Amino acid sequence: MSKKIRRDRKLPIMKRNKQIDIQRALALAGTFNFLCSCARACLLPFLTLYFRQRGLTPAMTGIIMGTKHLVGLAWSPVASMLSKHYNKRRVVINGSLVCSAAAALLLLFIPPADVHAQTGNCKMSDLSSSQSLGLMSSAAPSTSARTQPKLNTAPVSHTAVTFPAKTLADNKSASVLMNQTSLYQHNEPHRQSSQENVSAAEPNISSSIVHHNISSSAARNKRSEEQQGGKMTEEEKKESHFEFLGSLKMMDPQHQLFFLILIIVSVWESAAAPLEWTADDGLYEYLDFADASDRYSSTAVWGLLGAACGVGGAGLLVSQLNCLVAGQFPRSVAHFYCYACMAALALPAAAYLPLYLNKKRDRANALLKAVQLVHGSPHALLCAATTLLVGAAGSAVDNFLLWQMQDHGSSELHMGLSLALALLSQATFPLLAGRVSKLLSPGRVLVVGVASLGLQCFYYSFLWGPWAAMPAQVLSCFSSGALWWAVKVQCEEVATPGAERSVRRVYSTFSLYLGSGLGSFAGGFVVQRFGLPWLFRGVAVGVMLWCLCLPLLQWRAPRKCRINYSRLLAADASEASDSDSEQERDWLEKAMEDDRSNNKYGRRINH
Description:
- This protein has 23 helices and two strands.
- The chain has 607 residues and is mainly α.
- The relative contact order is 0.12.
- Residues 212-237, 575-607 are annotated as: Disordered.
- This is Major facilitator superfamily domain-containing protein 6-like.
- It is a multi-pass membrane protein.
């Protein structure tokens, strides 16, 4: 016995499997979605404004944004499948956060294409005043040294304020032109005056010309010496940089800037595209393994709240900064640094993000089956066409709404708060979904959502002040919230059990990538040709026409009758119970009678 006991003691103790904490997993997933959405909202809504400040045209901006969406459309599913195949999901998520932040910061090293590039509201207020004061202070000693004190009157200060403000980057040429115009303005009255004044003014003018020639020759000699010594000023470095680009491709600086930004944005999107799909797939498979996949949709609300906080906070922060940060950078660079900081904060959450690899689940086949399900249902095809149109219209709003607001005096504060209000109103629709579903069918809710988007676009074309866009943002509760709720219901009607998420991804891909890409291309050329107000009016007219056609098409489209397997099982059970009820009752009565007879027989024997 003792030997057996000793052997039992030597047996290893089995470790208990760790229990899956669903609440902790959902908290980590919600935090990660909040931080990632906050990071994107700090920069992406304001990105087209930065392109405008750099000197890009609307058509160039539309091409860049359209290319960004198409790169995401092609690379997101491929990167997600590769990360699953090689089991490198966490590496892809962390690498995407770091590389996307680094690629975004590369845009700050590209100089503007033109000295007349817009800098927002700072160009007419603080920036012009600061530059004019600097020019006046630099021009004061030169004018006093070259001209008489009597000639340095009000016309000189007037030219110093207005004319150089248009060419802020070229201070030297502005000061020279100012002195030449001041001399020309003050020479005419002296020629018409007496001979004594002319004889008194000529020595001063000739001395100023001689002094100017001496100073210019000295400047040339000094520049030649610096070039011989291997030293170059910042302006000469910029000029040589653009000359080098021009030697490679015969382009003007604006097109060089366009191609540089296009390349950097494509690299940036290639780094950022795998993040969302990879994290969503890993989290969904983790919750599915724990039999809690029904709670996956609860993390989407945190994404909307994070986007609202990001866009509102970034707008508030940038509006509090000076027009020039560190004396030379525009304050719009703060959006890029906010994006990089929030991406860095998301790294700890990504390190502990719950992920699971289900090798049996084939994502490619699931997407193909989802496309087949959508293609086989006429109502699903109408819903897909609607999301495609909504994506194209939404890209016009996302790319050029802030341009329209800026033209009417809105600052970053007005822009950030208006976009945050739209996101918060979109997040409140699930609270109204129960009441709306009792009043309207999902097809009619889809029509209401598209009509609300058309009203928003029509309202945007008639903005009149900084806060004018705020009332229309409340309609986002129906234009975005109601529309995606109707798409979700359509996915549940079309999809087979377990394929709802794949069908929903087909709709989101149509809207977010393909529709937005096509809308960005078209919207840029429309703004280039007709202007911002006509872009929003054209989008509104197109969306309203689709609203008139959609109910008719929904009524004419045949609806397939789906087989509800749960009802069939219930019906089979009820029919079987009706037919077999008599047999079950006979069997039960016989058993009860036998039991009673056995009890009576046992009692008799005991007695």
